[in-house]
Amino acid sequence: MAGGVVGLLAGGGLLLARAARLDHGGIALYAAAMGSVFALATYHCLRRQFRLVDHAAERLLAAAHGDFQAPVPPAVHAAMPDLAVAMESLFSQTRATLDNVQSLAMQDSVTGLASRSSFCCQVELLLAGQERSGPAAMFFIDLDGFKAVNDTLGHAAGDHILTRVAGRLREVVAMQLGAASDAVIGRYAGDEFTIFFPHLPPESSAMRIARAVQYALDEPFDIGGTQVEIGGSIGVAYYPEHGATLAALLRSADHAMYDAKHSGRGQVRLYSEDLALRLAGRAELERDLRLALERDEFLLEFQPQVDFVAGRVVSAEALVRWEHPRRGLLMPDSFVALAEETGLIVELGDWILNRVCHTASRWARSGVDQRISINISRRELAQPDFFDRLNRAMQRHATPPEMLELELTETLMMKLRGDTYKALVGLRTRGVRVAIDDFGTGFSNLAQLRDLPIDRVKIDRSLVRDIAISVEARTICSAIVGLVRGLGLAMVVEGIESEEQIELLRVMGCSVFQGFHLSRPVREAVYLERFGVMDAAEARA
């Protein structure tokens, strides 16, 4: 192109020489010739620049499709060095960012273990591409009590424990299988960890390692001088017996872990056919529970609380029952825990609230001067609109507030915070009574207990069960009763099964009792017939 431009300029010089000997017309010819020359030169220069821009655009387009490795074309470097340097810097930064994102996706940022996606990818490759001389095993580990650590010590302490747990898991695997083990350890979610062993025969090996993990997690964690104990529940499943795919294997190990947790926590469970059958029955019960709420298959029974000083029944505890169409009458132990886990406790709780409010309103109009107490679960109280729903139920049925008593467990009362505390104070101001249920089974802070918005304490049956036969049991029970009386709180003793228990407790200073010795829970019609207007002597008969 340069030669062509030079030739054009040379031709223009010849024309200029000829034009010098011409008149004005010659001058015009000269101007026209020179205009053509420069226009053609400009065209060739622009064409060259456009080719360079095309090269740069093609490289940028390749980058847009993910190619950040190829170099910037030499022609761009030669003609536009600043642009070339800027493009190379952009590609380098983008590569570094993508590498960082990939690293974050593959590694858990808190523990340094494989992330969930990385763990699954690695296990999928191991399941698909390796010959096995024996079975593989999947461990599913859930930390026990980890939420309490976050709630009490903060999330920074929780992260520190997760990091320490990861370290202990690595140590166990290294000690049991050697540093060269091909086991994959991952943080699956939250406080859940998974370990996959591609080669782990025989079955006893898995249980031995699971127990080693359990012992490692049972050791206290030192967090800023505070000894924290958590432990873990572990489920174990074998490939291919308990799952031929990663999803099936994880599901089986997860089910085994939940069975371990429901068995008292800190347990190890191997997936089995028996467990599978129980899980199937549990799934069926959950379906039935959902249908029961739609079909109104629940009912209430009432158990009296008798005041031996006043000589009358002062309150009735409302207890839910399920009239199952095939299994008959089911007690709360058969379905309330499942309702808690599935969240159905909120809907069931609404049914109980409305039924109790309706019943209390009828009793008040009929002159039955007895409060009705109702158990409130942790899951219900955690609902932001719980107190709004309670107030609406009371308004709907015109329920006098003094006819209701809410029972909350000792552990739940100790965790009252903010709006919940204020709402309970407001209810008490209106006349609703509040009681601590199962007192003596939790870990009460005595200073906090004094300031809680409560009217009564229900002494748990476990404290009175052996008082007739054990000096130690009597001593403990007497101390608890003295504590409650010292705080100026009313009390009722649950689980009364004999006259001897009543006499001993009356000596200690108790006067209100509830239990099978006085009456089993009964339907409303039977309750009103027996206890609607009745004194203590008749209740004991």
Q: Topology of this structure?
A:
Elements: H1 2-19, H2 24-64, H3 74-79, H4 81-106, H5 116-129, E1 136-143, H6 146-153, H7 155-177, E2 184-189, E3 192-197, H8 203-218, E4 221-223, E5 226-228, E6 232-239, H9 246-262, E7 268-270, H10 273-295, E8 298-307, E9 312-324, E10 328-330, H11 336-342, H12 344-366, E11 371-375, H13 378-381, H14 386-396, E12 404-409, H15 410-414, H16 418-430, E13 433-439, H17 446-451, E14 456-459, H18 461-464, H19 471-486, E15 490-493, H20 499-508, E16 512-513, H21 524-531, H22 536-540
Parallel strand pairs: 6-7, 9-11, 11-12, 12-13, 13-14, 14-15
Antiparallel strand pairs: 1-3, 1-6, 2-3, 4-5, 8-9, 8-16, 9-10
Helix pairs in contact: 1-2, 6-7, 7-8, 11-12, 12-14
Features:
541 residues; Alpha-Beta Plaits; TIM Barrel; 3 domains; five-stranded mixed sheet; 16 strands; disordered C terminus; Rev_trsase/Diguanyl_cyclase; Biofilm_reg_signaling
What does this structure look like?
With about 550 residues, this protein is of the alpha/beta class. Helix content is about 55%, strand content about 15%. The protein has 22 helices and 16 strands. Strands 8, 9, 10, 11, 12, 13, 14, 15 and 16 form a nine-stranded mixed sheet that branches. The protein has a five-stranded mixed sheet with strand order 2-3-1-6-7, with helices on both faces. The protein has a two-stranded antiparallel sheet with strand order 4-5. Strand 6, helix 9 and strand 7 form a beta-alpha-beta unit. The protein is elongated and about 120 Å long.
